[in-house]
Amino acid sequence: MSDQHLHFAWQLNPDGPSQLLSWQPEQPCPKVAGVLWLHLNSADPKIAPWLATSGLLTPTLIETLFDEDTRPRALHLGSGLLLTLRVTHPSFLSQPDDMASIRLWIDEKYIISTSQYPLQAVTEVHSRLKENLGPKSSGEFLSMLLDFLVSDIGEVVENLQEQMADVEESILDRKEDDDSRQALNALRRQSIALRRYLGPQREALLRLIQEKISWITTEDHFRLRETTDELIRYVEDVDTVREQAALAHEEIVNQFSETLNSRMLTLAVVSAIFLPLGFLTGLFGINVGGIPGANSSWGFAFFCLVLCGVIGLIFFIFKRNRWF
């Protein structure tokens, strides 16, 4: 399956090898003995009109499959299941708000899926079918597709965790720089965007495993529950990354405050030392009569000794009060 060719049809045979059908959207809907899986490009303007004339779905379901609202959800309607799911797109790490969506209508005889982009999970199922290792029924297809979708999400979450560990190490070693701060900001944006999509998706899968659907077998239901538990763990991992990013940001702020306070303390000490010295030199530098030692050859040396004594006294006071 090429990245540009997003239309294909599979006949899933429960008692034999599945078959890739030579079909295009402008052609009539294939008649198969098993389960028909149609994957369609929702960005193609010909798809919605073709579905409307195919008789496969009601107008309401067709509208839902092409709805711009991509909030994850799972609805059990009659004998079928309507699913809207979000998937991590290859450009997610550089564009956190870019998560692809896939919409599915599944019943015992038909599987109709739509997406705008080539999806890794769909490609995996497609490849398994070519190797005759793919699903044989609607329930098995659903459990396999969701497993691949959640696995793709898991790879992104693990990548976030590894990046977060690197940023934390640089911060704790006080080696943070502009690159690490930018990386931390990117991690915060990515984790927030991922959590915004995965939260509703977790609720959708939890609702799915509670539904009693005739064509979902006990084995399929067990796999769906395992996949849901895995997604819940990934959501918890994303929450952990968010908390780590917030703590790392606070640590950077604290380290910056400590550095600033240290520098301000140094300036304050220098100012405290030179303030009385400046006062004394200014006082003895006024051009009026009566300045002590003005006519003595030892006056300047004595004045320097007085200044050194003042410095020593200030240093003693600072040390005694542990101001530095």
Structure description:
The chain has a single domain (8-255), classed as Beta Polymerase, domain 2. It contains seven helices and seven strands; from the N terminus they run βββααββββααααα. The protein has helices at residues 47-54, 59-65, 120-130, 138-172, 178-210, 218-284, 299-320, and strands at 8-12, 19-21, 35-41, 73-77, 80-88, 99-106, 110-115. It has a seven-stranded mixed β-sheet, sandwiched between helices. Residues 1-5 have low confidence and may be disordered.
Question: In summary, what is this structure?
Answer:
With 324 residues, this protein is an alpha+beta fold. It has 7 helices and 7 strands.
Q: What structural category characterises the helix and strand content?
A: alpha+beta
Overall pLDDT metric? 83
Q: Biggest sheet, open or closed, and with what strands and sense? A: 7 strands, mixed
How much helix is in the residues?
Answer: 55-70%
* CATH first level: Alpha Beta
**In the CATH hierarchy, what is the superfamily?**
CorA soluble domain-like
User: How many domains comprise the coordinates?
Assistant: 1
Q: How many E strands?
A: 7
CATH topology: Beta Polymerase, domain 2
- Order of strands side by side in the largest beta sheet? 2-1-3-7-6-5-4
Tell me what the CATH architecture is.
Answer: 2-Layer Sandwich
The helix/strand series, from N terminus to C terminus, equals EEEHHEEEEHHHHH
Instruction: Report the radius of gyration as a whole number of Å.
Output: 35 Å
Oligomer state equals single chain
Shape: rod-shaped
Q: Count of helices?
A: 7
Beta-strand content bin: 5-15%
Q: Name the poorly predicted regions.
A: 1-5
N-to-C CA distance = 70 Å
